[in-house]
Design brief:
The complex is a heterodimer of chains A (536) and B (105). Chain A is α/β, with parallel strands linked by helices and 536 residues long. Chain A is 34% helix and 13% strand. Chain A is built from 15 helices and 13 strands. Chain A starts with 8 loop residues before the first helix and ends in a 16-residue tail after the last helix. The longest helix of chain B is centred in the first third of the chain and has 18 residues. Classes of the chains: A alpha/beta (536), B mainly alpha (105).
Chain lengths: 536, 105
């Protein structure tokens, strides 16, 4: 008999509305799980992540959260039970324990972005998508760990250590940057989570942790209250245990803000759940060789070379395509996406310029950290503050952003990267063009080039780390939506992610294909497997 | 390929960025920057026709769905104290900073 914290949000809401359970019972179940698997609270005292944990217990725990808001959560759960007792509608996500990537401001909570710079920052307001999830009845349990300012693909770079570990194999990373979010959902320390995806930061950790992660269309979800990384790339989105929960969350999170927010598009939000049971009959599903043969740095020499993707991952994706064909979809092979291999090089430029620009606000004046060292003037205060409170990744991004956008280099680097971005976008336009030769409804690709790697194996090599996002970042350049759903386990028992990419604003078709795949494979044996963290 | 970001250029960038680095940090960061630049040079291996415009973001935003810019109006903050409490140093409602560098005219 599964614990309440292991169910999906839609299962919990149904039981809650039938008055079989209470929101307080759901929350207590989640707290029991947190007590069992979470481990000690992280701190900024220990800077470098290390594979062998300094505390013997650390290597056996999940470490999903930076902070846990027990009292706030219990108040909310009681309020939901009171609503139900009065016969009122508690909302479509009533009682669902929610973890929030700690890059969203939530009023009254520490909102740290995983950085020492914001360790003492208590947000004075709540980010729009989080506010909407809470209004829909979700119960915020805690703020999940992440790579510092979301700069990473392993969650190792957080200033708050110990960093999250992969619940399927605690010697491996959970992915990142929304690592704590994915871990919390995989380990039952939350039922749903909200993360952000700038190059794959929702889809990649979802793939590594065996859960569902959605990057919506750029502009579908408001970024109001999000601590910005790459403003032209950032997308808030859900991390869940199944596709229906992702659709339910997206229903709530999406749409323009009412009070003058300029980050979400004014486009109607459909009910993303209505097509989930429609199957894939008649849909055209594309496969592109450019997502299976990739240009990737050699782990030893660092030289870029053309290589086949991990065979087990390729097989899993092709098997998924075959199943969707059996379910009635038409598979379109050889869809060219020729600029895919340029997505990381272009991202190295675009994201660094935007990150450097966004990091300038952290200066030790209005909020956050300020050096305690004696200083002679303002400039020295900036220097010492930033030296002491930024980790290596923010420093690296500031320097690269300044270099590639500098007056004498901007044409060679920044302008060229933005024009290559147009070419990447055109690959998607051609694949989805309803009058073109391919006319794809969605593309089917692997989410990641490898399954979860070992802690410490890549960290420190900023080039190799960035290439972990090779297959997810093209959609961030293009602005188009993508989802990662579990599609099996590799020979080490690690989850493999299947990525489904769709056209602008067509999350509905993407979710429909994902749900069809989930239903078609519901009885497969690998779906019975549970993360090793939960086995004892 | 020789390093493109020389120690001199690196020192200039650090100055521009208002950072202060230890020698170990500098060595590591400069090496990483040059490694990333090697990847960035991939962008030069394909021709980009002159008529390809830069993309500020991927999704095209025709005007009906384009989010409007917020009107540039002041809005009263009802709890200024809460905002000011976040600041490292405040005096009588002002942020306090060290001496601002200036030159005598």
């Amino acid at each position: 008999m599964p614990e309440l914290c292991d169910l999906t949000a839609h299962e919990l809401v149904a039981k809650l509305k039938a008055r079989d359970i209470t929101a307080v019972e759901i929350l207590e179940s989640t707290f029991r799980r947190i007590d069992a698997v979470e481990g000690r609270a992280p701190s900024t005292g220990e800077t470098a992540p290390r594979p062998s944990a300094p505390h013997p217990d650390d290597a056996r725990k999940a470490h999903a959260y930076i902070s846990i808001q027990r009292e706030r959560a219990m108040e909310r759960a009681k309020a939901i039970d009171a609503l139900i007792a009065r016969g009122e509608d508690p909302g479509p996500l009533a009682g669902a324990p929610l973890s929030v990537k700690d890059i969203f401001c939530v009023e009254g909570t520490p909102s740290t972005a995983g950085s020492k710079m914001l360790e003492s920052f208590i947000a004075p307001y709540t980010a729009t998508p989080v506010e909407r999830l809470e209004r829909a009845g979700a119960v915020l349990v805690g703020k999940a760990n992440l790579d510092e300012y979301a700069y990473g693909s392993s969650n190792e770079s957080s200033a708050f250590q110990p960093a999250p570990r992969n619940p399927w194999d605690l010697t491996r990373v959970p992915g990142g940057s929304s690592g704590g979010s994915a871990v919390s959902v995989a380990a039952g320390e939350a039922v749903v989570s909200i993360g952000t995806d700038t190059a794959g930061s929702i889809r990649q950790p979802a793939a590594f942790c065996g859960v569902v992660g959605v990057k919506p269309t750029y502009g579908r979800v408001s970024r109001y209250g999000l601590i910005a990384f790459g403003s032209s790339l950032d997308c808030p989105g859900p991390i869940t245990r199944d596709v229906r929960d992702a659709a339910l969350m997206l229903n709530v999170m999406s749409g323009a803000d009412t009070y003058g927010d300029s980050t979400a598009a004014h486009i109607p939000v459909p009910d993303f759940t209505t097509q989930l049971d429609e199957g894939v009959k008649g849909l055209r599903i594309g496969l592109s060789p450019d997502y299976f043969r990739i240009r990737y740095p050699d782990a030893q020499t660092g030289e870029l070379r053309d290589t086949e993707i991990t065979p087990e991952i390729k097989q899993a994706v092709l098997a998924a395509a075959q199943k969707l064909a059996q379910a009635g979809a038409e598979i379109i092979e050889n869809v060219p996406m020729p600029n895919t291999h340029l997505a990381i090089p272009a991202y190295f430029v675009v994201s660094r310029v935007e990150a450097a620009s966004n990091l300038h606000r952290f200066d030790g004046v209005k909020y956050g950290y300020r050096t305690r060292a004696p200083v002679n003037d303002l400039r020295e205060m900036y220097q010492k503050t930033r030296a002491e409170a930024f980790g290596l990744q923010p420093k690296l991004r500031i320097l690269m952003g300044l270099y590639v956008s500098g007056a004498q280099y901007a044409k060679q680097y920044y302008q060229r990267a933005l024009r290559v971005r147009t070419l990447i976008r055109r690959d998607f336009e051609a694949a989805f063009d309803p009058h073109g030769p391919y006319r794809c409804d969605v593309l089917l690709t692997p989410t990641t080039p490898t399954t979860a790697f070992e802690i410490g194996a890549v960290y420190g090599d900023s080039v190799l780390m960035q290439y972990a996002d090779l297959l997810t970042v093209p959609a961030n350049h293009a602005g188009t939506p993508g989802i990662s759903v579990p599609c099996g386990l590799d020979s080490n028992g690690l989850p493999i992610g299947l990525q489904i990419l769709a056209n602008d604003w067509d999350e509905a078709t993407m979710l429909r294909v994902a749900a069809a795949y989930e239903q078609w494979t519901a009885s497969e044996r690998w779906r019975q497997a549970r993360p090793r963290l939960l086995e004892h | 390929m020789p390093d493109e970001i020389t120690p001199e250029l690196f020192a200039h960038l650090v100055e521009l960025a208002a950072l202060e680095l230890t020698p170990e940090e500098s060595e590591y960061l400069r090496k990483q920057l040059n490694g990333q630049l090697k990847a960035i040079h991939e962008l030069e291996r394909i021709p980009v026709p002159d008529d390809v415009p830069p993309a500020a973001h991927g999704v095209t935003y025709p005007s009906p769905i384009r989010p409007a810019l917020r009107a540039d109006e002041t809005r009263p903050c009802h709890d200024a104290e809460k905002i000011l409490k976040q600041a490292p140093e405040v005096e009588e409602g002002y942020f306090v900073v060290p001496e601002i560098p200036h030159e005598e005219l």
